[in-house]
Amino acid sequence: MQIEFSAQEQQALEHERYHHPHPCVQRKMEVVWLKSLGKPEPEISQIANVSLTTVYRYLASYRAGGIEKLKEVTFYRPQSDLAEHKQKIETYFLDHPPVTMKEAAHQLETLTGIKRSEPQVSQFLKGLGIKRRKVGMLPAKADPEKQARFKQEQLEPLLAAAKQGEKKSTL
User: Fold this and answer.
1) CA 165 to chain CA centroid, nearest Å
2) What phi and psi, each to the nearest 5 degrees, are found at residue 140?
3) pLDDT, position 61
4) Is the N end or the C end of the chain the one with fewer CB atoms within 10 Å?
């Protein structure tokens, strides 16, 4: 089936094949633009480095909706069931950070009724921007008296000054 292209459509295709922000759309525009020049489909397939089936699919898409139809980018992007509870989860975990992923998975199940494994929970929370924090350890030879003195003489005055908005020299 032959497609008729107006001079305005050809001009729009030529422009969009280089200036559209999405590379997949640029490729679609290139294929249809080559067709508007009268090139046969097998040659278009070779020039654009796409399969012949893809060329036919792009042309059918153009016939169905014109340039606007070619601009559509439709990728399958599955959404987690937890996505609809995103705000509630984020607020809860920022106020009540879990100690372990096991605890986070349990809290998620309690909040939403959706059960997920620990790696899935970790990935979901990472996507929300909630980072996993590892607990630091005290050295085996730590001196409790020295730590208490440091806390009382240096750390507590700095914390008090910070609460009042003052600046003091650092540790």
Assistant:
1) 37
2) -60, -30
3) 92
4) N
- Residue 48 near residue 31, CB atoms below 8 Å: yes
In a domain, 90, yes or no: yes
Backbone angles phi, psi at 134, to 5 degrees: -95, 145
Compute the CA torsion angle 152, 156, 157, 163 (nearest 10 deg). -170
Overall pTM surpassing 0.85 (yes/no): no
Identify whether the C-beta of residue 51 lies closer than 8 Å to the C-beta of residue 45. Answer: yes
Which residue among 92, 111, 128 closes a domain? 128
Residue type, 148: A
CB-CB contact of 39 with 55 (8 Å)? no
Q: Which token pair is 140?
A: 């085996």
d(CA 127, CA 134): 18
Task: List pLDDT tens digits, range 120-133.
Answer: 988 888 888 887 77
Residue 132 and residue 41: Cα distance in Å, rounded? 53
